[in-house]
Amino acid sequence: MIYPIVLAGSLHQTSLTQSPAAGSSHAALPSHLQPRGDGESPFQDLLRALHRNLTAPPTLVADHRDRAVSCRQLQDIGGVGQFVLEPTQGGSAGAICAAMTALQEWSSVTADDFVLVVQLCRGGAPAQDMTPLIQEGQQAASTGALVAAGTRRLGPMGHYGWLQLAPTSEAQGELHAVSRRFDAAPPLGSAPANFNGVCGSGCYLARWDVLQSALHAMGDAAVSLARKAVRSGLHHRGKVLLDQSAYRQLPDTRFERAVLPKLIDSGRLFALPLDRVGQAVDTHRTAWATDRVHEPSH
Predict the structure, then answer these.
(1) How buried is residue 194: exposed, middle or buried, by Cβ count under 10 Å (0-12/13-18/19+)?
(2) Is it the case that residue 215 has pLDDT exceeding 80?
């Protein structure tokens, strides 16, 4: 089973749009909840894709202030999901840890299950089709690797950093071992055209036990605080409002900075370029395949 976790919290993942004129129903909505011309938001695009391709309902990490809008948009498309509501600002590493803790209370998760982490970009929904990440990344993930989706187009998107790929001899088909990570741009002296790497998308696939263990890179104390925030939070019908006193003590640590370097050092981080030759990338909508992706049975 693949369990999707979506980080959709405006507190740490997306920027608030400027508030329109008084009386507007969309005042102060984060960009991923803003309806477009067709009446649906990037958030709903992503939810449709998840429901179409996976059987497990998504666990959605959201700003507690966006709870009503997020729930309504989920219901409007006939979707189901669980909510982890952030009471205060937190880093993505702590948010993922909290979501996994809540998910264990809501579902019968096993160590061999998979986790698909999707972070909503600052401009809206993920720019890439996630189907290849699921189809081609599962085999590597099943052996204990974390697979990161990325794009070879080294444009302005750099919120999730750049991953330098190891020599082709270490590649496994379309998957490439990652040798280094850069926070903002390719190294000085290396022209983007000559940089053998991908721009991160903030989307990852890993086995449950692998991701759970990797999160300890942010420190055992931080993991304990994230778990306490869930267990001491307010629970009600598939929603949990995280305990503020515990969650606010978490370091504001990004997953990419706290966790990925440790996986690179151990040779367990692989990257999958989603815009390889022959595959179109839609930068505005999440265009997943219509057919359901086959998941491993247990």
Answers:
(1) exposed
(2) yes
